[in-house]
Amino acid sequence: MKVTLIPLRQTAPLPRYATRLLGAALAATAYVTCLPWDLRNRPETPDALHVTSPVTTSGVALLALALLSLSAYFGIRDRLAWTLLVVAAPPSTLMYVSFDSHPAQDGQIFPFPLVWAFFTLVMGVGALAAAVVARGATRRSDA
Predict the structure, then answer these.
(1) What's the whole-model pTM score?
(2) How many Å apart are CA 68 and CA 62, to the nearest integer?
(3) Helix count and strand count (H, E) for the chain
(4) pLDDT tens digits for 100-141?
(5) How far is CA 68 from CA 31, 44, 60, 65, 139, in A?
(6) What are the angstrom distances between the C-alpha of 78 and each of 32, 48, 67, 126, 143?
(7) What is the DSSP letter of 49?
(8) What backbone torsions phi and psi does residue 5 show, to the nearest 5 degrees?
(9) 11, 32, 71, 78: which could form a disulfide with 130 (CB 3.0–4.6 Å)?
(10) Cβ neighbours of residue 9 under 8 Å, at least 6 residues apart?
(11) What's the farthest any 2 CA atoms get from each other in the chain?
(12) Contact 83, 75 (CB under 8 A)
């Protein structure tokens, strides 16, 4: 039995936008779950230049896996621009809010807008690449 994923542009408006909103909510939830936001972010010792962070390697790997999976799904079902907006925009927005809520440290190497822009670019390129690969794989398997 072959399951066909109908392109979202061929569905009614309500299910189309509900699917997109659900995808954006899943992307935001994955970010918040995998990279917890520690409001107690503070230096380990007084006069320290580095702050504590709850970010772990496994959390980043799980976030990447979740976002790549969502990108592949929306790459098959929707246009690439919508994939970018649904998958990469919510985590990018949450990252900006997180960076903006913490005061700049004296010994900070890069200003947070530069770091945010870099990681936004990485998430966007990753989402688009996964969408294109998934779309190409489904087209080859249909032929």
Answers:
(1) 0.84
(2) 10
(3) 5, 0
(4) 877 666 556 677 788 899 999 999 999 999 999 999 988 777
(5) 12, 34, 12, 5, 19
(6) 25, 47, 15, 16, 20
(7) S
(8) -95, 105
(9) 71
(10) 16, 78, 79
(11) 64
(12) yes
